[in-house]
Amino acid sequence: MGSKLDLLRQYVDVDSAIKYIEKRRHEDGGYCFVSDLADTNVNDTYYAIKTYELLGVEFPEKEKTIEFLEKAIQPQTAVVAIAMALEGLSILGAKDIAREHVDIVYTKYNPAEGKFAISLGGSEEFGTATPFEATYWVVKAFRAIGQDFSKEEREAIRAFVMKFREGNGYGVKQATTTMTYQALYTLYALGYKPPKSPHFKNCELCPMGGFAEVPYSLPPYIEPTFYATRGLELQGETPACPGRHIWFVRQLQNPNGGFRRSLELGISNFQNTYRALAVVDSMGRFV
Known about the structure:
Number of helices: 14
Keywords: Repeat
GO molecular function, one term: catalytic activity
Pfam families: Prenyltrans (PF00432)
Protein name: Prenyltransferase alpha-alpha toroid domain-containing protein
Number of strands: 4
Organism: Thermococcus waiotapuensis
C-alpha cells in the first residue's frame, strides 16, 4: 500500500484526493461528487471504489456500499449503471451477489438477439448513452464477475463493434480515442486479437503533455489521456513523454483535492479524479 501511495505523492496531492472522496460518502454507503447534501448515485460510487482499489487503501464501511450497489440494480436502472454496479460489487468482494443479478442485464442487453441495449438512459461518456458504450461496460462487468458469453454472443458483439471501424481506429464518423480504446478492450476481452492501432500515438501531445480525442488536434483532456494510456498498455506500447503527461495531470488538481478534465477552469468530479490518478500511476513507471 505504502509504495503505491508514495509513488503518487511524488507527483500529486494524493492525500487531499482521498479526503475529497471520503468527505462525500453518505450514510447509505453511496457517494456523490457534489457534496454530502446531494443524492448518491452509482457512477460516483463506482469511481470512489475504483479510486480506493487503485490506491490500495481500505474501503470504508464496505458492507454498506455493497448493499447500496445491490439495491441500485433495478429494471429501471440504465444498463451502463447496472454494469458499473456489477463491477463495483466484484471489486468489493461480492462477486457472488453480482452474479445473482446477471439476468437483469439480458433484459436490456442481449447480443444474440441483436439487442445492444434497451432503454439506455444516462451515459458515462457521450451525453446520451449509446449501444456501443453499453457494450464496452457490459463486457467489462461480465469479465470482472466471471460471467462468460456464449460463442454466438461473442461473435455478435465482435460484428457489432467492427461496424465502428474507422481507418486506424473506431468511431462514428471518425476514430476517437475513447471509442478506439473501448472497441479494442472489448475485442481483447472476448478473446479476439485485433491489430495494433497507431491512433493513441497519433493523439499524444509532446512536449505539451496529455492526449487528444482525435489525431493531431488540441486540446488535451483527461478522458482521452486516460483511455490512450490504457490503450498503449493494452497494446504493450510505451508513451513518448510520460513526464509531460504527469505534468499535464498535475495542473488539473483543484484546491478541494479533486481533479477537473482540462487545463481551463472546471469543477472536480470522481470520474476525473480516478482517471487522473490512474494516468499518474501508469506514467510514473516510465519516468
